[in-house]
Design brief:
11% of the residues lie in helices and 43% in strands. By secondary structure, the protein is mainly β. The radius of gyration is 22 Å and the shape is globular. InterPro entries: F-box-assoc_dom_typ1, F-box-assoc_interact_dom, F-box-like_dom_sf, F-box_dom, Gal_Oxase/kelch_b-propeller, SCF_F-box_component. This is F-box/kelch-repeat protein. Residues 8-48 form the F-box domain.
């Protein structure tokens, strides 16, 4: 009921609320019982998520910094280059320092795991909700290498459920012990699955989730991508495109990165010679062995001494690079110009003011580990 004495139709309320940022309409839960019921309903959560996924203007960026001396990690959330979230976030109990990994983003959720403790949690930055994932009670084989494991996170569209997959390498061969965690049951189970190649453990070659499938880089054969289908729970292998280069050109495998481009999953490939560095953007169509590759455009040339490493592409034309100074540098592909590093020194100011999500206890050297694009959501965990 408004101050003119008539009631706003519920469908109009839903349409208005679903277009607002999560932080804004969460404050409206106290307006009335009707609004409260609407906002906490599953149907409203799904409508809001669908609208966010369809609107590129609602993209958010999570910037992940990591210290060289393993103090702690630092996360910052951005919208259009502006810091929008900078408050302390407690996980409820003391964690081991360092070794924090962001496994992936799906529907506004992040999966975070701690290598040393084998601990996992799910995090919704928009609602501030955090869920500790229960430890697996499944007995491990004697020959499992507990330190060589990889993790993936994504959505099973068949069961409408979220899953975490954990691969633990067995000694002396390419076999893996594979477990899957399902959010709805809050439990782990072992699956029988063949992993076609070793999955790289290199921290610079980040995996990604895209449209029901999780992707890792192959380790033994660097011309492949290993993928896991969240619905059928099977692994597959994708061959990288054949890119002809001169004998004097070096492929910088450790600088290759996944990125989204015009609604498709793409890869930025990096090359260098004695004086120049450049990249190529290729996109994938299809799944598994049926994938076809299309070259989109050439990126560069840059001086090799700059040591630029690509992180992702924004709005189809802005490539974000990082360098030895841990700056984040946008490059406009259309105008062929480097822009000023962003967000200038605001990350360090935020870090020093103890308003970051993870607050360090010393003054470490930071490396920009990743920039992850995500959408705000009301998905409950």
């Amino acid at each position: 009921m408004n101050n003119l004495g008539y009631k706003i139709r519920e469908d109009v309320v839903i349409e208005i609320l679903s277009r607002l940022p999560v932080k804004t309409f969460l404050r409206f839960k106290c307006v009335s019982k009707t609004w409260f019921t609407i906002i906490i309903s599953h149907s409203f959560s799904q409508k809001h998520l669908n609208m966010a996924l369809a609107d590129s203007n609602k993209d958010r960026l999570l910037i992940v910094h990591e210290s060289f001396n393993s103090c702690e990690s630092f996360f910052a959330l951005f919208v259009n280059g502006e810091i929008t979230l900078g408050t302390n976030l407690s996980f409820g109990k003391k964690r081991s320092r360092g070794d924090i990994r962001v496994t992936g983003s799906c529907h506004g959720l992040f999966c975070i795991h701690y290598d040393r403790d084998d601990e996992f949690l799910l995090w919704n930055p928009a609602t501030r909700e955090i869920k500790d994932i229960s430890n697996s009670s499944i007995p491990l084989p004697r020959n499992v290498d507990a330190e060589l494991y990889q993790v993936g996170f994504g959505f099973d569209s068949n069961t409408r459920d979220y899953k975490v997959v954990k691969l633990m390498r067995l000694d002396e061969n390419c076999d893996y012990h594979v477990e899957v965690y399902t959010l709805s049951t809050n439990s782990w189970r072992k699956i029988e699955a063949t992993v076609p190649d070793y999955v790289t453990s290199s921290p610079s070659m980040l995996p990604t989730y895209w449209n029901g499938t999780y992707y890792w880089w192959g380790e033994r054969d660097r011309d492949v991508i290993i993928c896991f289908d969240m619905c059928i729970e099977q692994f597959d292998m994708i061959l990288l495109p054949t890119i002809e280069v001169l004998p004097t050109v070096v492929r910088r495998f450790e600088y290759h990165c996944f990125t989204e481009y015009n609604g498709s999953l793409g890869v930025i490939f990096c090359f260098m010679n004695c004086s120049k560095t450049w990249c190529e953007l290729w996109t994938m169509k299809g799944k598994g062995a049926e994938v076809s590759w299309t070259k989109q455009y050439f990126i560069g040339l840059f001086e090799s001494r700059l040591n630029l490493r690509p992180l992702m592409i924004l709005k189809s034309k802005i490539i974000l690079f990082t360098n030895d100074k841990n700056e984040i540098i946008p490059y406009d592909h259309v105008t062929k110009t480097m822009q000023a590093p962003f967000p200038d020194d605001s990350l360090m100011k935020m870090f020093k003011s103890h308003e970051c999500l993870f607050v360090t206890r010393c003054q470490p050297l930071w490396i920009t580990r990743a920039i992850i694009s995500y959408k705000e959501s009301l998905v409950r965990i």
